[in-house]
Design goal:
The complex is a heterodimer of chains A (531) and B (315).
Chain A lengths: L1 H20 L13 E6 L14 H10 L4 E3 L6 E3 L2 E7 L4 E6 L13 H12 L15 E8 L2 E6 L6 H4 L9 H4 L9 H4 L9 E7 L3 E6 L12 E6 L3 H9 L5 E2 L7 H5 L4 E6 L3 E7 L9 H9 L3 H9 L3 E3 L23 H10 L3 E2 L5 E3 L2 E2 L1 E7 L4 H14 L3 E7 L1 H10 L5 E7 L7 H4 L16 H12 L3 H18 L3 E2 L1 E3 L1 E6 L2 E2 L6 H6 L5 E2 L2
Parallel strand pairs in A: 1-10, 18-19
Antiparallel strand pairs in A: 2-3, 4-5, 5-7, 6-7, 8-9, 9-10, 11-23, 12-23, 13-20, 13-21, 14-22, 15-16, 16-17, 24-25
Chain B lengths: L1 H28 L14 H10 L6 H13 L13 H36 L4 H15 L2 H15 L17 H35 L2 H8 L4 H29 L3 H6 L5 H10 L3 H29 L7
Helix pairs in contact in B: 1-12, 4-5, 4-7, 4-9, 4-12, 5-7, 6-7, 7-9, 8-9, 9-12, 11-12
Classes of the chains: A alpha+beta (531), B mainly alpha (315).
């Protein structure tokens, strides 16, 4: 008897999984009159490539502007969106994408290869416009229109991760609307009004400072969404966002602070998702400074930091000590077998002794009469200031004097990030879910690009290029395993932690991929609210 | 009178010019630049291209002259971060700020004058002590804290009032809906500003009550309400109106804290977003608008003095 009912339950479960897996939901199960309320912290800019369209715009733009590829909810590999298939050609020097047939823009115009060519050739690759995150696409030489529904990305260097990067905030914009604009990135009626889009929802109303209301796009290629609409409410204060969610006026709140989790979980209406992202916090040593040419100094500085204690204190434990720039969420591409630096202040002291930095009478180490003082500017943003002060204390324990200077965020970006006027600094990088981290580590990106620590090694460049040339997953795993070993040994950055990204959502909201926020919003067409 | 107003307006224009000059050079002295041009991921090449696009590679004085030439023609420039004309942004945000500001001002004036009068009439007795306790609370409780607490009580726990925004989305206009959205932010603003009105009213009424003409009026056998309304209150109003004028200039420039906590799309939030994002044209626009508010309100207050107290004349 017990066996039979258990068997029946399993059968029912399997059936249910099979049905939902196939994207079918029972008509009576979904409330098609439901409108979801979401929060964003400032007025969004409805163009994914406009400079300054960042956190307040990313998620809404992900819903509005379909991309060539999107992340698979299972393992974050690139899966079809506006492109249905892609292959590398010319030993990785070109990628050909077959585009989906019959896709229409929200104004009824057909979507074609010319829109893709326009987005890249005229906008992203047009250096005069300075498009948002254009530097990530530096390996692209140009995009050729092969046929109405075929494009060819011609590269200047192999770029095996291109399909991953195309899934990372790389929405396609309409040539027939923006093609004649003097600057396609600053068309106000588009960016702050009603843009022409391909996504499952489209803008119906944009009230500045208050909300953006989206309705289903009846022309969407994957069919009609199962919701009556989405409202992105503009709420700058994170405490008010949480209060609104608790009051039942918000269904999804992203980027929650760990200290509000308890209240949200206790509400019964909301659940908290612990999502991941390929994101690591770091302390960057400025390699223009001779002292960091000795890797023992960097190793000592990392050994001296109790990273787990910092995660517990700053993130209430919602994070994981990082081993390098590639996060464990990347599965097979993540290499856990690298040199690690567990908290060990004594070993740190010994390494500094070995490197010639002897402890002085004043408690600060010195070498050849020069005291080990590190200028450590930090910016007022998130947890950067408290994290910097904790690192300062850990380093004081081993006789290293971090000279912390707290700056306003804009000034910090100017002086530290752009002018590289610092010796060590604590910050973070958020990257597409690929092991191709060249924009943050290559010699070409030192001093001018995103290689903040100005680290340059031809050996590392070669390891990263091997990954960019590797076209099969097996080859990539091998190439990137070697790269991660090198990065752990040589420490271009001192890796701190991978934080969890916390999102609260209404328990009734279903079909919401939990793996990353970007993935969830790329699959907004599958969202539904159970009755 | 006409000449007086014209002279004051001319002075106001000079003040606004000086304000714009000072603001323009100060904001350009600060390190950093517009956040849309220099975010964390921007490379040096991208930044240069963007600076060129927005003409920010030109010297500061050249940019100021260009800006001023536009401003006198009514063109306040285009927001760097939002891509919209500054005048349009200001027009979008002034309505909500005035609605909230006028409501809070009316609440603060009515309650403040009533409580101030009550305190003065019962000087050093228990009503005075109660009013003074309320005022102290209003002075010392931080706005943002009170706002969050009221949201938790009235929106989250009781569910009586909306937590934020100025109207329900997609339901059309309804006065009840607007008022329910106004209730919390206007109350918090009024509560924090009211103590100033209470204090000034109480002091002014006490001073009048002790004056010779009130004693004379009472000695003549006038009824108490005539003494209070005609002799005491009317004379006490001059400092109260001055205080309300001060409060109005603060309110009409937008409350940064309240507008952020209650998701109110007003000038205050525009100002803080522009300042954080180093959006030069918007910072200038908001500063000028606030300056214009101060000039106008001050002028109106001065004109109102003459109405309240005919002894004050503007020639």
């Amino acid at each position: 008897m017990v066996t039979i009912s258990r068997y029946a339950a399993r059968l029912a479960l399997a059936l249910a999984l099979a049905l939902t897996g196939a994207g079918i939901t029972f008509a009576q199960e979904a409330d098609t009159s439901a409108v979801l309320n979401l929060a964003t912290n400032a007025d969004p800019t409805l163009n994914p490539w406009t400079p300054g369209a960042v956190i307040e715009s990313n998620l809404i733009n992900t819903v509005l502007f379909d991309q060539l590829t999107r992340y698979s909810p299972e393992d974050l590999t690139p899966s079809p969106a506006l492109a249905v298939s892609w292959t590398a050609e010319d030993e990785g020097m070109a990628w050909v994408f077959e585009l989906r047939q019959g896709v229409q823009w929200s104004d009824g115009a057909p979507f074609t290869a010319r829109d893709v060519a326009f987005t890249f050739n005229d906008v992203v690759l047009n250096a005069e416009l300075g498009a948002q995150s254009a530097s990530q696409f530096a390996p692209i030489e140009r995009v050729e229109v092969v046929g109405d529904h075929t494009v060819r990305f011609v590269l200047n260097t192999p770029f095996s991760a291109l399909p991953y990067y195309l899934a990372s905030f790389a929405g396609i914009i309409p040539e027939h609307v923006l093609g004649n604009a003097e600057n396609p990135l600053t068309v106000a009626s588009f960016n702050k009004g009603i843009p022409v889009t391909t996504g499952p929802f489209m803008v119906e109303e944009f009230v500045p400072g208050s909300f953006v209301r989206l309705v289903p796009n009846p022309l969407h290629w994957a069919g009609q969404p199962q919701l009556a609409g989405l409202i992105f409410r503009i709420i700058p204060d994170p405490n008010t966002q949480v209060a609104q969610a608790l009051a039942g006026q918000l269904d999804v709140v992203t980027r929650l602070s760990p200290n509000v989790i308890g209240g949200i979980e206790g509400s019964g209406r909301l659940e908290v998702l612990r999502q991941s992202q390929n994101l690591f916090f770091f302390v960057a040593p400025n390699h223009d400074d001779e002292r960091f040419s000795d890797v023992r100094v960097k190793q000592a500085l990392l050994l001296a930091i109790d990273r787990q204690a910092m995660i517990d204190a700053l993130l209430d434990g919602f994070g994981e000590v990082s081993t390098g720039p590639v996060a464990p969420m990347l599965g097979a591409l993540y290499n856990p077998d690298v040199r690690t630096y567990p908290y060990d202040p004594e070993a740190a002291g010994a390494l500094l002794d070995e490197a010639g930095w002897a402890l002085g009478a004043d408690g600060v180490r010195a070498k050849d009469g020069e005291r080990l003082v590190l200028a450590m500017p930090t910016g007022q943003f998130g947890d950067l200031v408290p994290a910097t002060l904790l690192v300062q204390q850990y380093w004081e324990d081993i006789g290293v004097d971090a000279d912390v200077r707290i700056m306003e965020w804009n000034a910090y970006i100017q002086e530290v990030v752009l002018n590289r006027d610092y010796e060590v600094t604590l910050a973070w990088w958020s990257m597409p879910p690929t092991a191709d981290v060249a924009p943050y580590f290559s010699c070409a990106a030192a001093h001018t690009g995103n290689n903040i620590p100005n680290y340059c090694s031809s050996e590392l460049d070669e390891l990263m290029n091997a990954g960019r040339r590797a076209l099969t997953l097996e080859e990539q795993i091998e190439a990137y395993a070697a790269m991660q070993e090198f990065l752990a040994d040589e420490l271009p950055y001192l890796y701190l932690w991978y934080p969890d990204i916390l999102t609260a959502k209404n328990v009734a909201l279903q079909g919401f991929p939990e793996i990353t926020a970007a993935t969830a919003f790329q699959h907004a067409v599958d969202w539904y609210v159970s009755r | 009178m006409v000449e007086y107003v014209a002279r004051r307006l001319l002075q106001g224009a000079v003040v606004l010019f000086l304000v714009s000059l000072l603001t323009f050079f100060l904001i350009n002295l600060a390190p950093g630049g517009p956040s849309s041009l220099v975010d964390f991921q921007t490379t040096a090449a991208e930044r240069e291209a963007r600076l060129r696009r927005f003409g920010l590679d030109r010297p500061v004085h050249e940019r100021y002259v260009a800006w001023l030439a536009g401003a006198v023609r009514g063109d306040l420039g285009t927001s760097i971060n939002q891509g919209l004309p500054v005048s349009k942004l200001l027009a979008q945000r002034i309505g909500p700020t005035l609605t909230l500001g006028l409501t809070a001002l009316a609440l603060a004036a009515v309650l403040g004058i009533a409580l101030g009068l009550l305190a003065a009439l019962h000087r050093d007795r228990w009503p005075d002590h109660v009013v003074s306790s309320i005022s102290t609370l209003g002075m010392s409780v931080p706005n943002f804290w009170l706002g969050i607490v009221l949201i938790i009580v009235f929106a989250v726990n009781l569910g009586w009032l909306p937590a934020s925004g100025s109207s329900s989305i997609g339901r059309g206009f309804s006065l009840a809906d607007r008022l329910s959205h106004l209730a919390l932010p206007a109350s918090v603003l009024a509560f924090s500003l009211m103590p100033n009105v209470v204090r000034v009213t109480r002091a002014a009424v006490l001073e009048m009550l002790a004056s010779d003409f009130v004693r004379t009026a009472r000695a003549k056998g006038l009824r108490e309400y005539v003494v209070m309304l005609k002799h005491t209150m009317r004379n006490a109003l001059v400092p109260v109106v001055a205080m309300l004028g001060l409060i109005a200039t603060v309110l009409f420039s937008g409350s940064v804290v309240i507008e952020s906590v209650f998701g109110w799309a007003g000038i205050g939030r525009l100002a803080i977003e522009a300042a954080n994002g180093r959006d030069y044209p918007v910072i200038l626009g908001v500063t000028l608008l606030a300056g214009a508010m101060v000039v106008t309100v001050n002028l109106m207050v001065d004109l109102l003095y003459a109405v309240i107290d005919p002894r004050i004349r503007h020639d």
